[in-house]
Amino acid sequence: MFPHQKSIEMKHGIFFFVFTTLLVASASACSPKPVAQKQVRIAATSVNSHTHHDSVAQELAQLREQCQAVVDARKAQSHNYAPHAKSKNAADPAGFVVITDYVDAIVELRYYSNYNFVGCRVDGYQKPVALATREATMALAKVAKDLRKKGYIIKIYDSYRPQMAVDHFVRWSKDMNDMKTKADFYPEFTDKTTLFPTYIARHSGHSKGSTIDLTIVDASTLQDVDMGGTFDYFGNRSHYITRGLTPQQKANRKILHDAMMKHGFDYYPEEWWHFTLKNQPYPKTYFTFPVSTTLFP
Fold first, then answer.
1. Is the pLDDT at 21 greater than 90, yes or no?
2. Beta bridge partners of 98
3. Is the pTM of this model over 0.90?
C-alpha cells in the first residue's frame, strides 16, 4: 500500500466514524432504535417508488408527444385512401388506415415505448402510429363522437399488432433472466413462463387488425379516468368484472364498455381495455407488415 493511500483511508475512516456517530445520536433522539431503523427503510422505499413513478410519467409523456407529432404531421397533409380497398394477403396493408386520420383520439402506443411488460420497444413498432382496418376505424369514430359528447376523449394503447411483435412476446415470456417489469405488470406470478399461453399466445387477435386497446380521458382535465386497474396488468383486477372496484370505477368501465358495444365491438372479459369489432373483415388473417407511416402516405 502506498503512503498517500493509507493517509486517505485514515481520513475516510475518521469521517465515517463521525458521520455514523451523529446519525445514531440523531436516531436515538427521535425514537427507540428499532423504530428508527424501520422508518429509514420505509423512507427509502417511498423515495424509490416516487422516483419510479416519475420515471414512468416522463416516459409516457414523451411517448404521447411522439404520437401527437405523427397525428399533427398527418393533419397537415391530405391522404388518398382507396375507399373500398381490401388486403389480399398477410403482408398487404391495403385494407388498413391510420386511425387518427379519421378518429379524434389521444395515442399512447405503449409497445413503441420502453414502458410495457417487455420493458423495451417491441419488434415491428417502427413508428408511434395506431393502425386498424378501415371497418374498425369507422366504428371507432362513432364511439369517439359519442364519448366526446359526454366529456371524454378516447386514448389508444394499442391496435394493429404485427405477428413479429407477438413473436417477441413469446420469446420474452420464456426468458427467465428478464424479470425487470415484474413489479409493474405481473407481481402475482413467481414464474413468468406461466403467462404463456394463458396471457401470451403464439397468435393475437390484434394481428387481424380490428382489435383496439383503449381507455377514456376526461376532456376537461386530460386526466385518465380511473378504471381501477392499469393497462396490461396480468391479474384478476384487469377483468372487466372483478372484486375490489369502487362504484365509480365500475361506472367508468361501463361507460367505455357500453359505447364500444353500441357501435359493433365485443369485449374481452379478462381485459377491461380490449375490444374487437364483431364483424371484422379479416377473421382468419394474422398480418405481418410493420407498424409504420411509410405504408400510408
1. no
2. 131
3. no
